[in-house]
Design a protein that fits this description.
It is a single chain. The chain is mainly β. The chain contains two helices and eight strands, in the order βββαβββββα. The chain has a four-stranded antiparallel sheet with strand order 1-8-3-6, with no helix packed on it. A four-stranded antiparallel sheet has the order 2-7-4-5. The relative contact order is 0.36.
């Protein structure tokens, strides 16, 4: 079985200012793994690194949507990740077994850059057949 066929995509809020926090709360019921991307728009400052464009990146889990138990917290991602002409992506691949039903991701940009969080849940207990069950607008398999 191709585990990507049995996956679900979840998209969080997008923020465009340093005063906001992009947030994604994931109901991971029936899924064991997640690949979570925090995507930050292209910076006009070539010397920026991922560390200088994200103030906070946190991952927490729990049995309620508040997901208060910390799984992963860092002040900033690794400073060695250079911002290029492409959007910056920080990926977290997480084994969700034993982490609680809900997982919450918060990302606060340091500057006014569009920041979005996208998660793909994998290894689902039950197969999903339709695009809406996968959390997408359209689905193609081939």
């Amino acid at each position: 079985m191709n585990f990507l066929e049995n996956s679900k995509t979840v998209v969080g809020t997008t923020v465009t200012s340093a005063a906001g926090t992009a947030t994604l709360t994931i109901d991971r019921l029936g899924y064991d793994y997640a690949s979570i991307d925090v995507i930050v728009a292209v910076s006009a400052t070539p010397a920026n690194t991922a560390a200088s464009i994200l103030n906070v990146l946190t991952l927490s889990g729990g049995e309620t949507t508040t997901a208060g138990s910390s799984i992963y917290t860092v002040a900033v991602p690794a400073a060695s990740v250079a911002v290029t002409a492409q959007p910056s992506v920080v990926r977290m691949d997480i084994d969700l077994r034993g982490k609680g039903r809900y997982v919450k991701v918060d990302a606060t940009p340091a500057t006014s850059l569009a920041t979005t969080i996208v998660a793909r849940l994998g290894k689902g207990e039950v197969g999903v057949d339709s695009a809406s069950e996968m959390g997408v607008l359209a689905k193609y398999s081939g």
